[in-house]
Amino acid sequence: MTRGSRRVRRIRRWIRRRVRERIGTVRVVVGASAAWTCSLVAGVPALLVAGLVALTGTALVLRGARAGALVSLTGSILCVAGLAGLAAGAQAHRAGEAPRPATALVRLVAEGQPTESGRWRTIGTGEFGRATLITEDPPPAAGTTVRADLDWWGDDIAGLAGAEVVEEPARQWRIRARLREGLTTAAGVGDHAGADLLPGLVVGDVAHLDDELTQAMRTVSLSHVTAVSGSNIMIVAGVIVLVCARLRSPWWVRILPAAIVTAGYVFVVGPEPSVMRATAMAALLAVGLLRPVGTPALAVLATAITGLLIVRPHLASEVGFGLSVSATAALILLAQPLARLLADRGVPHVLAAALAVPTAAQLGVSPLLLVLDPRMSPYAVLANALAGPAVAPATVLGLGALAVEGLSHGLGDIAPLSLLARGLGAAGALAAWWIARVAVVCASLPGASLGWPAGTVGIIVAAGLVAGAACVLLGRRWVREAGLVTACACLAAGLGTPALTATGRGAWTLLVCDVGQGSAALVRSRDGPRDHALLVDTGDDPTALATCLAGSGITRLTIAVSHFDTDHVGALPQAVAGVDEAVLLYPQALAATADARAASVLAPVGEPAAAGRPLTQSLLPAGVTAEVLWPPPEPRSAEDGNAASLVLLVEADGLRILLPGDVGESEQLRLARDLAVRAPVDVLVAPHHGSSDLSASFYRAARARAGAVSVGADNTYGHPSSQALAAFGAIPVLRTDECGSIALTANLTLLGGADACVPGGR
């Protein structure tokens, strides 16, 4: 037998032995994965597959004694997976079939929070289950029952209008409101950044945070302390457990006060999804501390995930839930080995633990964080390590201020108690000030926000980095060496790729993004700030849009939506989330549609656009002007989207650009008469991706010097059609399916890596 064969046999024996030793953990982990998958798929086919898996597993278990231990173990895994998938999938299917009434009684269970769009967001429950509700005006207080009209924009989000109060908040809701107001008063909100942060850290009230601090905390991965997290809830429970630890009584008697206080704290905080996730993860850790000796914490985590998904299947699609699970799993698996590794190399034990916890958590959540924002900060671990020690004092002191202020109010505003509450609040705000200061300082350091590949590639590279780091910490010999090589290679690829492949680098004025079979175009001026651009449509591929924006330095967007077809607005949420500031514009003709109302939740909305008037200049980048040529203001339905497409004549750096959305032949004929009496344009972007639904006179009236077609490679629509390419005439025409993203300067010089594209090529 060769050495290689012996090594393979040893590896197989080791795997079999580890599987047998960890079979309980394997079962519940596979069960949690099945529950998650069936919650996401949520349909009859998924239920049928889960049922088949459960039956197969049961059959294998029944014949396991005759077939051998391995068959029995496999059967038990399949049985657990099938049953978990059935339970979670059935709940998800039932939730998807819940009624979506136009009018309903709604119990508001959270305070209204202002959104960036100027509207208000709250949470309501009713016969429809649970949904996020958007209102034009501040909603009634939490605990109020209203009869309202619901305009459903999705399965779990609706516009709420015409709210008629049916029942005022009960006594417990009024007490809750007074406690939250008391904390705001005790903290001294408005005095400094720490005072503004404390209500968010203690009870999730982030309405007092300014944009600068919010962005700084996001940059260095400290956003989790701007609202209640699992660590806060564990601190609350831990303090009560420590207070009760001196009682000579069974453990369940000592735990009971902690459970009661924690439940009350969660009620005061509110039923936001993040709070429910944090509570579940905190309960998981508590169970882990009390679990029988020998029960792996990872098995407890998987069991908790399965239970949560069965009760709340919608959590499966929430990134926040994934972040909570990833962070907890990373702490269970990686924190202790990392602390041991640091201690073995001479780092003091206390410091090793302080560094290991945020490092492990940051590693665990990195792949999912990159879904939200494809950037990485090298100071994230440092910021979390420095800010971490202040979280517990801020939480405890803030809670003390909340309790004492509430007691003072209940007893008739007793002055000494109010003074004590303000003292506790000031001390808590001082601890929170340290957290805010760490965020601002770290975010201002050079290279605080480094680019990372966007989309699936970036997630895979980040997952490779995490897997490599896990091998270094958990593996031995060659596994550790391979993990180190993998982690270093993924880190180098992740940080180096954006710098080497940045699209649109240079002094471009027009950037037609390659977003596949869709449309997205950026315009900015060399006379204005380089971080502000006009984005006309977004395409429907967030990864492609993020790739186009990478390296451009754009942090502010004015987003003009031509109409609400998916290939023009599918990536709108990611476009808004990917920049610091965004404002939204869309045709007045489509302003009454549900699509427009749903989009307007994402960002502030400027004056709706209509033919004959320019876009509001104060909203556009400096040096950029845009005139609306179409559509007229008369209302249209969503089905008239193409005919109601926004047609913009944009000018920047002397370059005149015509962006006609998806208008068809009849609209082009009407526009041709207007274009014929105007100055020629420099660049014409083909309407409707070069569709054959065109008017050749429109192309001739534009008298463009160059053409561009935003189109997907090998698309099934036949775009661009031969008629559209012929309509351009003899001018050079650039296509995104051939050139990639097209970056043009004011003198029509081609930039951005499209040198191999031959202008005029058909």
Tell me the strand percentage band: 5-15%
Approximate shape = globular
Figure out the total of helices.
26
Write out the strand line-up for the largest beta sheet, numbering strands in chain order.
13-12-11-10-9-20-21
- Show unreliable segments: 758-762
Helical content band: 40-55%
In a nutshell, what does this entry contain?
The protein has 762 residues and is α/β, with parallel strands linked by helices. It is built from 26 helices and 21 strands.
Identify the notable features of this structure and list them briefly.
26 helices; 762 residues; globular; 7-stranded mixed sheet; 52% helix; 6-stranded mixed sheet; alpha/beta
Question: What can you tell me about this protein's structure?
Answer:
By secondary structure, the protein is of the alpha/beta class. The chain is 52% helix and 13% strand. The strands form 4 sheets. The chain has a 7-stranded mixed β-sheet, with no helix packed on it. The chain has a 6-stranded mixed β-sheet with strand order 14-15-16-17-18-19. Strand 3 (120-126) and strand 4 (129-135) form a beta hairpin. Helix 2 (23-41) packs parallel to helix 5 (69-96), helix 2 (23-41) runs parallel beside helix 12 and helix 11 runs antiparallel to helix 12 (297-311). It is globular. The model is unreliable at 758-762 (pLDDT under 50).
